[in-house]
Amino acid sequence: MASEKGVMLLDFWVSPFGQRARIALAEKGVQYEYKEENLTEKSELLLKANPVHKKIPVLIHDGKPVCESLIIVEYIDEVWSDKAPLMPSDPYQRAQARFWADFVDKKVYDCGSRLWKLKGEEQQAAKKEMIEILQLLEAQLGDKKYFGGDSFGFVDVAFVPFTSWFYSYETCANFSVEGVAPKVAQWAKRCLERESVAKTLSDPKKVYEFVCFLKKKFGVE
Amino acid sequence: MEEAKGEEVTLFGFWSSPFVHRVIWALNIKKIKYKYVEEDLSNKSALLLEHNPVYKKVPVLVYNGIAIAESLIILEFIEETWKENSIMPQDPYEKAVARFWATAAGDGLWQFFITEGKEREEALTSVINNFELLEKELIGKNFFGGDRIGYFDISVGWISYGVPIFEEITEFKIITEQKFPLLHAWMEAFSNSELVRDTLPLREKLSERYRKVWEATMQKKN
């Protein structure tokens, strides 16, 4: 990579992981170059920037690559620390923020994928798990405006991109997020009032189209 | 030892868990006095389940009554709560690199350990790829953290005993002095350091435990 000054983001339009990085950059008002990757034909740059996982997103800052979306978000928060802090300052609150962001990371995408990939009993099991996940997050959110409290924070950034996948989860598995986790549903709407989120999140219908495309690709019907 | 200024630190662990070892090493670098509770993983204590209701796993650090779970998160909490004897780099980019390898370093190792044939070959390619990159991280340094052992070293530190044990059981050497001189040297320096030497269980005991887990896993597959 040329040691070019500036910020570049290697990404894929519908990726909730990429969207985390985009939201963090927007919250901080950082100018950057967005590069859309073709995931079936990954660029030389991507393979060089992320030789271990060969995945997006990758943030390249002054020629140096940062991989893994939550690591990227913490990096953005630390470098552009003068504006819109995403992490709390208290060590225990920070540990809690990291824990729940990591929980979203470990659970939501995988379980969500099983909702559209599987059928019958297996799908029912995935649905049960997704409801449990949403209810745990609901309990964590409580009556707060955001997961971060009064300010939009790390866990909010980690979880909000998945809210545009709710429609797909609901349609594939036949349940309602609002029905099982009303506070999360309200929080999702509140987040969309933020410019960084509104401009970044994919339209839920477009996400559903993408899921349908994946289903065909994996031979699920 | 940093004595309790009304501070109570308890670590719930399991003797052979590499995740628990990370926390022990961090607590020791920081010279934090703590109480250790050994859990029976086949019969978890009510206290553990109360402190880690989400995953019900070790390690869990309890500090003045509040619980923190997930080893890497515990490490960052320890760094931020006890300011002396820093384990994290100051530079955000170096932090990002250390955080990346903390989880990525072990990628493929378990698959290599428990698979055969083509699957194992693929896992091995991935492992070697990662070790080549890790080797580069050690250029000009004694440890991943620089002059001293830090977060990066203790996060990937389980490799220093895990890989030799995997190699012994599978009868396949991955980290040789010829292929990975820096990594090989790091493994020796790390294992022989005062920090690690006095805290790890006996190699034979660990080896026996890994073999048992390996046999059980292989049996389930066949």
TrEMBL record, chain A:
GO biological process: glutathione metabolic process
First-level EC class: transferase
EC number: 2.5.1.18
UniProt cross-references to InterPro entries, sorted A to Z: Glutathione-S-Trfase_C-like, Glutathione-S-Trfase_C_sf, Glutathione_S-Trfase, Glutathione_S-Trfase_N, GST_C, GST_C_Tau, Omega/Tau-like, Thioredoxin-like_sf
Residue runs in coiled coils: none
Keyword 4Fe-4S carried by entry: no
Limits of the GST N-terminal domain: 5-84
A Pfam family matched in the record: GST_C
Keyword match Transferase: yes
GO cellular component annotations of the record: cytoplasm
A molecular function (GO) term: glutathione transferase activity
Family: Belongs to the GST superfamily.
Designated name of the protein: Probable glutathione S-transferase GSTU1
Native source species: Rhynchospora pubera
From TrEMBL, chain B:
A biological-process GO annotation: glutathione metabolic process
Keyword entries, A-Z: Transferase
Entry EC number(s): 2.5.1.18
Enzyme class: transferase
Sequence ranges assigned to domain GST C-terminal in this UniProt record: 91-213
GO terms for cellular component: cytoplasm
Keyword Repressor: no
Organism superkingdom: Eukaryota
Catalytic activity: RX + glutathione = an S-substituted glutathione + a halide anion + H(+)
GST N-terminal domain mapped to chain residues: 7-86
GO MF annotations in UniProt: glutathione transferase activity
InterPro entries in the cross-refs: Glutathione-S-Trfase_C-like, Glutathione-S-Trfase_C_sf, Glutathione_S-Trfase, Glutathione_S-Trfase_N, GST_C, GST_C_Tau, Omega/Tau-like, Thioredoxin-like_sf
Record-linked PANTHER family: GLUTATHIONE S-TRANSFERASE U8, GLUTATHIONE S-TRANSFERASE, GST, SUPERFAMILY, GST DOMAIN CONTAINING
Protein family per UniProt: Belongs to the GST superfamily.
Identification of the protein by name: glutathione transferase
Organism (species): Rhynchospora pubera
